[in-house]
Write a structure and sequence with these properties.
CATH class of the domain at 14-113: Alpha Beta
Number of strands: 7
Number of helices: 4
Structural class: alpha+beta
Oligomer: single chain
Distance between the termini: 7 Å
Radius of gyration: 15 Å
Protein backbone atom coordinates (compact mmCIF):
# COMPACT_ATOMS: atom_id res chain seq x y z
CA UNK A 1 0.00 0.00 0.00
CA UNK A 2 1.23 3.44 -0.84
CA UNK A 3 1.59 5.88 2.05
CA UNK A 4 1.21 9.61 2.09
CA UNK A 5 2.33 11.92 4.86
CA UNK A 6 1.13 15.35 3.79
CA UNK A 7 -2.33 15.33 5.44
CA UNK A 8 -3.26 18.03 7.94
CA UNK A 9 -2.90 16.85 11.53
CA UNK A 10 -5.95 15.37 13.20
CA UNK A 11 -7.46 17.82 15.65
CA UNK A 12 -8.14 16.72 18.28
CA UNK A 13 -5.78 13.73 18.18
CA UNK A 14 -7.57 10.40 17.98
CA UNK A 15 -6.89 6.83 18.93
CA UNK A 16 -8.06 3.94 16.78
CA UNK A 17 -9.82 1.27 18.79
CA UNK A 18 -12.38 -1.49 18.27
CA UNK A 19 -15.94 -0.25 17.91
CA UNK A 20 -18.19 -0.94 20.89
CA UNK A 21 -21.96 -1.11 21.05
CA UNK A 22 -22.03 2.12 23.06
CA UNK A 23 -20.40 3.87 20.07
CA UNK A 24 -23.43 3.18 17.87
CA UNK A 25 -25.35 6.45 18.52
CA UNK A 26 -22.35 8.46 17.27
CA UNK A 27 -21.77 6.02 14.40
CA UNK A 28 -25.43 6.44 13.33
CA UNK A 29 -24.95 10.19 13.44
CA UNK A 30 -21.96 9.90 11.10
CA UNK A 31 -23.95 7.53 8.87
CA UNK A 32 -26.86 9.95 8.63
CA UNK A 33 -24.67 12.69 7.14
CA UNK A 34 -22.45 10.37 5.08
CA UNK A 35 -24.62 7.65 3.57
CA UNK A 36 -27.78 7.72 1.50
CA UNK A 37 -29.01 4.54 3.21
CA UNK A 38 -27.61 4.22 6.75
CA UNK A 39 -27.55 0.81 8.37
CA UNK A 40 -30.18 -0.18 10.93
CA UNK A 41 -29.48 -1.01 14.56
CA UNK A 42 -30.05 -4.71 13.81
CA UNK A 43 -27.45 -4.70 11.01
CA UNK A 44 -24.90 -2.92 13.20
CA UNK A 45 -25.42 -5.31 16.09
CA UNK A 46 -25.06 -8.32 13.83
CA UNK A 47 -21.86 -6.89 12.37
CA UNK A 48 -20.36 -6.10 15.78
CA UNK A 49 -20.98 -9.66 16.96
CA UNK A 50 -19.84 -11.44 13.79
CA UNK A 51 -16.58 -13.39 14.16
CA UNK A 52 -15.72 -12.34 10.59
CA UNK A 53 -16.08 -8.59 11.16
CA UNK A 54 -13.63 -6.00 12.45
CA UNK A 55 -14.81 -2.45 13.10
CA UNK A 56 -12.57 0.37 14.26
CA UNK A 57 -13.46 3.86 15.40
CA UNK A 58 -11.36 6.99 15.61
CA UNK A 59 -12.09 8.24 19.12
CA UNK A 60 -10.85 11.49 20.62
CA UNK A 61 -9.76 11.65 24.22
CA UNK A 62 -12.79 12.68 26.27
CA UNK A 63 -10.65 15.28 28.07
CA UNK A 64 -10.11 16.92 24.66
CA UNK A 65 -13.74 17.02 23.58
CA UNK A 66 -14.29 13.30 23.07
CA UNK A 67 -16.39 11.74 20.41
CA UNK A 68 -16.12 9.47 17.41
CA UNK A 69 -14.69 11.13 14.29
CA UNK A 70 -14.94 8.18 11.93
CA UNK A 71 -15.10 4.43 11.54
CA UNK A 72 -14.23 1.57 9.22
CA UNK A 73 -15.53 -1.98 9.00
CA UNK A 74 -14.14 -4.99 7.20
CA UNK A 75 -15.10 -8.64 6.77
CA UNK A 76 -12.33 -11.21 6.67
CA UNK A 77 -12.47 -14.69 5.19
CA UNK A 78 -9.43 -16.80 4.46
CA UNK A 79 -6.99 -14.48 2.68
CA UNK A 80 -9.54 -11.87 1.52
CA UNK A 81 -10.85 -8.70 3.12
CA UNK A 82 -13.96 -6.79 2.13
CA UNK A 83 -14.38 -3.17 3.23
CA UNK A 84 -18.00 -3.00 4.36
CA UNK A 85 -18.09 0.69 5.14
CA UNK A 86 -15.99 3.68 6.02
CA UNK A 87 -17.15 7.16 6.99
CA UNK A 88 -15.72 10.29 8.60
CA UNK A 89 -17.57 13.27 10.08
CA UNK A 90 -17.64 16.14 7.56
CA UNK A 91 -15.65 18.45 9.86
CA UNK A 92 -12.89 15.81 10.19
CA UNK A 93 -12.48 15.05 6.49
CA UNK A 94 -9.41 15.82 4.37
CA UNK A 95 -7.04 15.20 7.29
CA UNK A 96 -5.95 11.64 6.56
CA UNK A 97 -8.36 9.97 8.97
CA UNK A 98 -10.03 7.68 6.40
CA UNK A 99 -6.58 6.64 5.15
CA UNK A 100 -5.44 5.89 8.69
CA UNK A 101 -8.60 3.93 9.52
CA UNK A 102 -8.43 1.87 6.34
CA UNK A 103 -4.72 1.07 6.50
CA UNK A 104 -5.03 0.15 10.20
CA UNK A 105 -7.95 -2.20 9.55
CA UNK A 106 -6.10 -3.89 6.70
CA UNK A 107 -2.88 -4.22 8.69
CA UNK A 108 -4.74 -6.20 11.39
CA UNK A 109 -4.87 -9.07 8.89
CA UNK A 110 -1.36 -9.95 7.72
CA UNK A 111 -2.72 -13.13 6.12
CA UNK A 112 -4.81 -11.10 3.68
CA UNK A 113 -3.75 -11.12 0.05
CA UNK A 114 -6.60 -9.14 -1.53
CA UNK A 115 -8.92 -6.35 -0.36
CA UNK A 116 -12.20 -5.54 -2.09
CA UNK A 117 -14.63 -2.66 -1.75
CA UNK A 118 -17.49 -0.95 -3.56
CA UNK A 119 -17.65 2.79 -4.16
CA UNK A 120 -20.02 5.16 -5.91
CA UNK A 121 -18.56 6.38 -9.22
CA UNK A 122 -19.69 9.88 -8.18
CA UNK A 123 -17.67 9.80 -4.93
CA UNK A 124 -14.53 11.42 -6.30
CA UNK A 125 -12.81 11.95 -2.95
CA UNK A 126 -13.22 8.29 -1.91
CA UNK A 127 -12.06 7.09 -5.31
CA UNK A 128 -9.03 9.35 -5.07
CA UNK A 129 -8.16 7.89 -1.67
CA UNK A 130 -8.52 4.32 -2.92
CA UNK A 131 -6.49 5.07 -6.05
CA UNK A 132 -3.72 6.60 -3.92
CA UNK A 133 -3.58 3.42 -1.82
CA UNK A 134 -3.15 1.28 -4.93
CA UNK A 135 -6.73 0.01 -5.43
CA UNK A 136 -7.85 -0.52 -9.01
CA UNK A 137 -11.30 -0.84 -10.55
CA UNK A 138 -12.06 -4.47 -11.42
CA UNK A 139 -15.80 -4.43 -12.07
CA UNK A 140 -19.18 -2.82 -11.64
CA UNK A 141 -22.31 -3.76 -9.66
CA UNK A 142 -25.38 -2.38 -11.47
CA UNK A 143 -27.73 -0.32 -9.25
CA UNK A 144 -25.85 -1.45 -6.12
CA UNK A 145 -26.80 1.76 -4.34
CA UNK A 146 -30.30 1.80 -5.79
CA UNK A 147 -29.78 5.12 -7.54
CA UNK A 148 -26.26 4.41 -8.79
CA UNK A 149 -23.98 1.55 -9.80
CA UNK A 150 -20.98 0.65 -7.67
CA UNK A 151 -17.44 0.32 -8.88
CA UNK A 152 -15.74 -2.77 -7.48
CA UNK A 153 -12.16 -2.00 -6.53
CA UNK A 154 -9.45 -4.34 -5.36
CA UNK A 155 -6.01 -4.13 -3.86
CA UNK A 156 -3.48 -6.92 -4.04
CA UNK A 157 -1.31 -6.94 -0.93
Amino acid sequence: MKERGDEAPLVPPVELRPMREEDLPEVWEIDSVSLARPWTRAIWQAELHSPFSDYLVAAANTAEGGGISGYVGIKHTADELHVMNIAVRPESRRRGLARRLLTSAISKHPEARTVYLEVRPSNASARSLYDSLGFSTVGRRPRYYGDEDALIMSLTL
